[in-house]
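Consider the following assembly input.
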Amino acid sequence: MKGRLAVVGLGPGALDQLPAAVATELAGADHLVGYRSYLDQVPAELAPGRREPYELGEERRRARRAAEAAAEGQRVALLSSGDPGIYGMAALAIEEAAGLGERGPEVAVFPGVTAATAAASLVGAPLAVDFACLSLSDLLVPWPELAARLEALCAADVALVLYNPASRARRRPWEWAVASLQRHRPQPTPVAAVRRAYRAGQSVRLADVGSMDELEVDMETVVIVGSSRTVRRGEWLVSLRDEAPP
Amino acid sequence: MKGRLAVVGLGPGALDQLPAAVATELAGADHLVGYRSYLDQVPAELAPGRREPYELGEERRRARRAAEAAAEGQRVALLSSGDPGIYGMAALAIEEAAGLGERGPEVAVFPGVTAATAAASLVGAPLAVDFACLSLSDLLVPWPELAARLEALCAADVALVLYNPASRARRRPWEWAVASLQRHRPQPTPVAAVRRAYRAGQSVRLADVGSMDELEVDMETVVIVGSSRTVRRGEWLVSLRDEAPP
């Protein structure tokens, strides 16, 4: 009997941001596989299955183990944060399941609340017109390729959501992004840095393109940069379509 | 006493895609304001408050009415589909609440599952690297501005999610998008058209950039176009970072 590999996202962190379909899948899983700190976010009473925690950086091993366990007939939940299809585990899970050929389990990807919209909701509606999401981590993507995408998106007049803006060891992509945005967008364009959205220690800082180099950012921060359609209304950022009043 | 204006999204349509926080807010609302067909998606037993349905195209009236009712002290839920910050009601709600000045109610935006990730989950993980979302509706955005954004995003090497690709009366932006993508991206680049994700009549069609002009699309379709990192694995689309196997 074939099992099933469900790839689920935990959303921004608070359990009340989980879609009911994800909660049901977690409750029914025989076996939960994920990064240790994601597993720790889910109380055992909500997900009584056996748990197999992994450390950071073992993404492919996790995906392989989850696919193998599902191929053996178990109902497996592989955990991501946010939405599992956005910088999450869904792509690796599909690759590993496909790699098992005939033995490969059924895969189901469950959508969730991604960090971009979670962060946006805390500062208003900065993504209400068109927008792009870009991860500044160059761990798995060659820097020239990342730089080309970054330059193209900074130049395009869309709101921009920067995931993983910087780590302790990696500052260059962030510095490069700030410089590119300061070249391409008017200095008063609104910017928001949202850290730990919907989790303990949540913080929101507002800035603008001209001052964004002063923001402190890390791997728990999401940075939202407005377009020519984004305005500030008190503590809110709003991107407006044409019919909105000035 | 000031009320509260909660802007909530219903997700792609199935109620089990609602985050618990949204379900709780709907259950506790005194007054629900929204497009008639969104209100019809929520059974009265889950949201017993008074309902004020609006027809399509009355977005600003809806937002104003919701802000007024909240200013009068009610707990109001203003409904969008998807995530209310993505082409939804959040921006107008903030504008209208701000327009009431001192009388303006507290506003809370609740994140939800947006159409991009709902559609992506049904075809695998096409948005697992960087991506952009663009609405092809030129109803509220001048066409030259929309065309400039479209051209910039078709040229950038990111996955692209096209919302509102075409209506019966409006085909030009879609034809223009197809032509631009066929100029900028290799013809075998994977494309998916997802219609009515997580709703009755759901359909998924796979194509590629070379054949995407044959897709039938409408206002209920979301089109996902891959980047140079997107591959097809059987019936799945996957965007791969560097460490993934070829």
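Helices of chain A lie at 20-28, 36-40, 59-71, 90-99, 115-123, 143-155, 172-184. Ask yourself how this observation constrains the way the partners meet.
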